[in-house]
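Kindly inspect the following:
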Amino acid sequence: MEVQLKNFIKSGNIISFVNFSGSFQKLKNNKKISYIIDDKFHQNISVRKYLEKKLGTFSHSKYVDACKMVLLDPEIINGNVSKISSTEAKKLRFVEALLLNSETFLFVNFEQGFVFKSRCYFQKLFKKLIKYEKCIILVTNDLTFLMDVPSKLVLFEKNNYLEISDFYDERLYQYVEMPNVIFYVKYLEMRGIKMEHYLESKEVLKAIYRSVTSKESL
C-alpha cells in the first residue's frame, strides 16, 4: 500500500512503523527529511568525498561534533565508504542527516547490529532530538527496542494501517515476534497470576518476588 509520510510527520515526536514493507532506498536526503537506511554503501569513493558531494559545503569541525554524537570514529573520513561496516554505514548516514539539520530523521532497522550499550545510547539520543522539535520515524519490527522509546506505534497490515497504544495488543503478534518480557507476563496471566503490563524485565522480577513473599502460588 502507498503511504504518505507527511501524514505521520509531527515535530517533537517519535513514530514507529511496525510490519512496514515499503522502501526508501531511492529517496534523497534533504532539509525536510533524511533517510538512515539499513544498507551498505556501494560507491567507490572516500567518506570525505561522499559528504562533500551530499552536503555541498563541508565543515570538518561540525563533522567531528556529529561523529561524537553518533559514536562514530571521525578518522573514518579518509576511508572508502564501500569498505566500512554496516553499523558504521548507519552512523555515517546519521551524521549526514545531522549535518543537513533535517527536520525529520527516518531510521530503517537502525538498532540492528548494535550491542546493548549502544542501543540504549541511541534510545536516549532519539529522546533528546525530539526536544529540539525533530521528528523521528523508526521503521523496525524489534519491539524490544521500541519499548524503551516513547513512540506512537503504527502497525501496517496488507491494505491498512492502525495505531496501537499497548505493546500487549495481540494484533501486533500476528506479524512480529513477541518480546520475552511480554511473553512471560502473558504466561503468568494464563496461570491465573494477576500482573501489571510491565515493559521491563526487572519490574516483572519484582512482581514475582512480591508474589512469592506473599505466598501466592506460581
Remarks:
- The longest strand covers residues 14-18.
- The helical segments are 47-55, 60-70, 86-100, 116-130, 143-146, 180-190, 201-213.
